[in-house]
TrEMBL record:
PANTHER family to which the protein is assigned, alphabetical: MARR-FAMILY TRANSCRIPTIONAL REGULATOR, TRANSCRIPTIONAL REGULATOR, MARR FAMILY
Annotated protein name in UniProt: MarR family winged helix-turn-helix transcriptional regulator
Membrane-spanning ranges: none
Region entry Disordered, spans: 1-37
Positions of the HTH marR-type domain: 34-173
Length: 178
């Protein structure tokens, strides 16, 4: 029997996206309280995150399975997208401690994916950058993940795939402004 993840709003089987509980709406008060307005505003973001993570990101991250942990992958992705970063900036972006970043960087440097240089602004810190090997490693995983996602999207028509690509580009562009 499928697991019940839905609680009071009904049942949701494992693998389905649970529907958030919704407050009753009236014609005079379509949203209700400020709390409910915030809830309504967050629903699309939550739904997009869940669907995007499951449909697009999971197949991509699966290409790293058994090689690196998720935090290490996120660190490599950050260096790939933003270029060299100071250890403290990596810690802030990854929402983790400088000590954890230090351990991850040591491991990634050991396998040749990153290079470390002294941080002129901090006597104890480092500036991390992807090595050529690290960039090739991430490029390879991007290609593997892209092939998997293309296979997932193969049931969509060409125009639907184009519409989806444009929508993802628009969302990414707008969120990069935040």
């Amino acid at each position: 029997m499928p697991a019940d993840l839905g609680g009071a709003t009904g049942t949701t089987t494992v693998g389905e996206t649970p529907s958030p509980a919704r407050a009753p709406e009236t014609a005079a008060d379509p949203v209700g309280s400020a709390e409910e307005a915030t809830d309504v505003a967050l629903r699309p973001a939550y739904r997009m995150r869940v669907v995007f993570e499951r449909t697009v990101m999971a197949p991509y991250r699966d290409t790293y399975r058994g090689e690196l942990g998720q935090a290490q992958v996120e660190l490599l992705e950050l260096l790939y997208m933003r270029g060299p970063l100071r250890q403290q900036d990596l810690a802030r972006e990854l929402r983790t401690s400088k000590q954890h970043v230090s351990k991850m960087l040591a491991r990634l440097a050991e396998v040749g994916h990153v290079t470390l240089a002294a941080d002129s602004a901090s006597a104890r810190g480092h500036v991390a950058a992807l090595s050529d090997e690290g960039r090739a490693y991430v490029d390879d995983h991007i290609m593997q993940g892209s092939r998997q996602v293309q296979a997932i999207f193969s049931h969509l028509s060409a125009s639907e795939r184009e519409e989806l690509a444009q929508a993802m580009d628009t969302v990414a562009r707008l969120l990069e402004k935040v």
